[in-house]
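Allow me, if you will, to draw on your knowledge of protein folds for a short while. I have a record of one protein: its chain in single-letter code and its fold written as discrete structure tokens. I should value your view on which stretches of the chain appear to form regular backbone elements. Thank you for your consideration; the sequence and its tokens are set out here:
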Amino acid sequence: MITILKKSLLWLFLLCFINIIAQEQNEKVIFIKEPNTKLQANTTYEFTIGYVALTDSDLAIDFSGGPSKFYAGTKVKVKKGQGIKKLIITTNKKPSTGKNYKLVLSLRDVNGNWQTTRTGQVINNIEIVKQAVKFSKNVTFSPLLVTSLPSTSKYNVNVSYITKEPMFIQAAIWEGGKWLASSDRIKVSPGQEEKQLTINYDRPLEGKNYKYSVSFGSQEEFNTKTYVTKEISGIKITKPEKQITIAEINDKSIQLSLNKASTILTLPSTTAFKYIKIITLKGKPVLEVENSKSIAITNLPKGGYFAITSNSNYYKFVKF
């Protein structure tokens, strides 16, 4: 049963990763099979990594820290595009048992070092133990986490967790190494579930030097700051999306006459729009098309609508 569950989760991750590729043009690296936060002391560690690279890159993983300042790592060159790779870390000696180990996954410039990292994930405070680890509490970033978004006052961080005992989870947003804001710390019950943590931050942000972190552990671990923290870098924040009211759209709209038999709405333009969105007179989105001057409206119910383009043009029409 456990083997079947693991295979099902792996396929779920693969499907989600394919969905990421389809939805985003932002670089990303993810653990297809999430590492445990407790690892058995060994000389070999294998990781399955998914990536989206906008240029030829080095995909690297580094394992370090602990009582003896252990270090081991490996990297592989990957072509521009997306894919899944197995990275194997091998070392002559086993890491000593104890806490404060760190696992760093990164997408870097070819032949670059950590300073050329463009996106990555970090797991802090991993514990090395002697015996094989069957289970420990864990929290992971959702594979569908949005890593390219407009500046806003609320940042939603979607995570999945699994635990046998109650624990606490908290998310934060950082600019480089500077903490900006955190979500509320929430308590979760034993089990396996997904949660959305909301970080409130009123000041506008813009750039590529942002990261999310998620921390989890018991109340005692939060009190002593021995909780586990995971980070995902390469968060891109763009200028806030322009907000406009339905009244303003109505006031600025150009009225279009539409033949009763028309099944295609064609907007006046010499070039294609990045997008055309159709919304109801109450503001509900109902249709969207990309890279076109026209949009099929066959399945639209009769009534009034607005057509909004990427050039901030507004048109009002009636479907008969």
